[in-house]
Amino acid sequence: MKGIAEIKDFARKAWSRGDVLRSAATGEPQFPLRLRFKKASGQQVVDSLVEVQQWLSELNASSKKLGGFGFTVEFSEVNHRKLGRQRLPSDIRFDTPDDLVRFIGKQREFTAFLKALETTKKRISEVALWMTENPMKVVPHLDDWNKILDVCKFVQSRPKPGIYLRQITLSGIDTKFFEAKRSILSDVLTCLLTADAYDASITGLSRYGFERRFGFLYDEAIIRYRILDDGILAGSFYRDLSMPLSEFAEHDIPGCHTVFVTENKVNGLAFPTFKGGVVVFGLGYGIGDIATATWLRNKRVIYWGDIDTHGYGILSMLRGKLPHVESILMTSQDIDLNRNAAVVEPNGTRRLDNLENLTPDEESAYFRLLPGGDCEGVRIEQERVPYYLLLEKLDEIRH
């Protein structure tokens, strides 16, 4: 016997799926919505007569018949040789969206959504269809829907605006608004804008994903690099430089043919001289951003990271963007040479996934660090690797 709690659960699930709002918005015939009851036998009625009577009383008290809204109870007959014909509930139905939303206390959201939909049809009609298809994405933002439309109209009129979000002058909209509404704004703008008005390859919101997707300026990663060859300086006084990623990406470094990439800042600062070389350092997983510098495709790029699961993760990620990347001091032999310098990589932070862009030798070393490997949990940080090993490796590269 399904009681009021089960009926409310049924109604809430219909609401959460968006069925109610879609039906009200489009007129699709999703109502009446029915919840069927398991048919009881006459003997079951006799055995649980008191419970059945209480159940009938509860259903009747909460039904549309008495309350004016909610569910309607439908009956079927059950025969019993002693009790005769008994009318028992066979199912309940919600005849209209209004019946259901009032029953679960969602009438405010229901009314506000329909009002927002009508407003959207008048202001930005292209978004209205998306709203009817994704009503539950809209509901949490109904109080700010007009502001969301304001932003969408602004971006529609100025795609890829090339300004900071802080520079948008719209009533009631500030940077805190964008922090809270990035996800819904991204969804609506993607629906609204033409394919050439945003970068569809950027899908996440982390690391300024919204700004990068829709062409806003943002606080870029700062690339730091050192020139390792006096011949590259060509009269410049600057050997150690830092600049926004976009500036680094725009300008090739004349005379440079080898770019070393390393995680650790001190290793970058102490990196030895190398003819035609520069070293980029200190970005961690953000190092993948350097791949936006298309001129790197014509350079030899060599990565040196920690020997731990994240070091190989960064290498795999970087090679996914720059397929010709090489690595140094990250082989199984390097694990064995530096085993006495190893510490333990914290268990809760280790990577355990397969990495798609490692060479067989790198992959073999990575697997040794995983559960079941002979070096499970080993971490050999770059600064623990003897400096002479780096010098020897660079001599090999030179020759």
Task: Count the beta strands.
Answer: 11
Low-confidence stretches: none
CA radius of gyration: 32 Å
Q: Indicate the proportion of strand residues.
A: 5-15%
Q: Strand order, main sheet: write it out.
A: 5-4-7-6-8-9
Q: Which fold name is given in CATH as the topology of the largest domain?
A: Dna Topoisomerase Vi A Subunit, Chain: A, domain 2
Largest sheet: 6 strands, mixed
What is the mean predicted local confidence, pLDDT?
A: 89
* Share of helical residues: 40-55%
The termini sit apart by 83 Å
What class do helices, strands and sheet pairing give?
alpha/beta
Q: In the CATH hierarchy, what is the architecture of the largest domain at level 2?
A: 3-Layer(aba) Sandwich
Order of helices and strands: HHEHHHEEHHHHHHHEHEHEHEEHEHEHEH
Number of helices: 19
Shape: elongated
What's the number of structural domains? Answer: 3
Broad CATH class of the largest domain: Alpha Beta
Domain Wadjet protein JetD C-terminal: 216-392
Pfam family, one: JetD_C
Domain DUF3322: 5-189
Protein name: Wadjet protein JetD C-terminal domain-containing protein
Overview of the structural elements:
The structure is a single chain. By secondary structure, this protein is an alpha/beta fold. It folds into three domains: 4-103, no CATH class; 107-214, no CATH class; 222-398, Dna Topoisomerase Vi A Subunit, Chain: A, domain 2 (3-Layer(aba) Sandwich). The protein is 44% helix and 14% strand. The protein has a six-stranded mixed β-sheet. A three-stranded antiparallel β-sheet has the order 1-3-2. Helix 16 (309-321) links the parallel strand 8 and strand 9 (326-327). The mean pLDDT is 89.
